Amino acid sequence: MTPQAPDTTPTQPSCRTFNQAAISVFQVMRSLPRRVMARASLLAATSLVVSVGVLVPQLSAQAATYVPPLPRSTATAYVVADATTGRILAARDMHGRLAPASTLKVLTALTALPHLAGSDTVKGTYAAAGVDGTKVGINPGQTYTAKQLFTAMMVMSGNDAAMTIGAGLGGLPRAISEMNAMATHLQAHDTVAHTTNGLDAPGQTSSAYDLAMMFRDGLASSRFRYYIALRSASFPLAQGKSYTIYTHDRLLNSYPGMLGGKNGYTIAANASYVGAASRNGHTIIVAVMRDVPNFWPEVTSLLNWGFAADGHVTTLGYLKSPLRN
Description:
The protein is α+β, with helices and mostly antiparallel strands.
């Protein structure tokens, strides 16, 4: 069993040091004659402040920035990081190579967005229509805009939409090659893609570190942020009909400051998730892999902890930036 990451919460200083110093000074004062004690009181008070001056600001600062204990996690691997600085605040087995499930669609989006404008069109295929798992309802031969496909892939995790995006990149073999090239560019060295939708495939892996790093790169794209923030959207059916699709990200509708995220689940991968929220100028990313299906309370706790801990715990490392072209 993978050991749990150590609690990076800083040790809170004890008030006993201050109390003992105060007691010692006032005990001495009480033993003095009354006239001497009156003159000594001002000096003693001043001396006390000077003697424990280092502790008083420390106590005040620590009280104002109290960091709670790191929440327990059922995930095999996770990362909590600051998206702005790339600082890793907490982690467990962050480079463990695990099946990513639909969180791999983050890489699909990062790969395809620079190549497909929202108005570009792609035709549905029989292969996409027949794919396993969650589907948005791609019809073979029907034309879709790239915007509709990105929406379906990121909002409701349509596996058929992800395959159709792959077709728009020149076919699945080329799309997968482009995805792996993008992973190399992002320095996501634990990630190997064999599908565009994240369905289990031999040798297909990612890590909590890579998911957090890729999601951080996505946050720099206004188009990526647009798609992950959608709570619902209309998707076309055959014969001019349409229906409303809804986000699979429960935190998007409930967590204050949530920017969005991508969840996934397969039998082999179990549950996975990567997402981010912003508060008071800080953006925290949480990635979990091989977790229980109802991981939402856990991710909520990790986000809360990240906001409390950011800037007040020892940095465990940094999320890398993409390679320069």
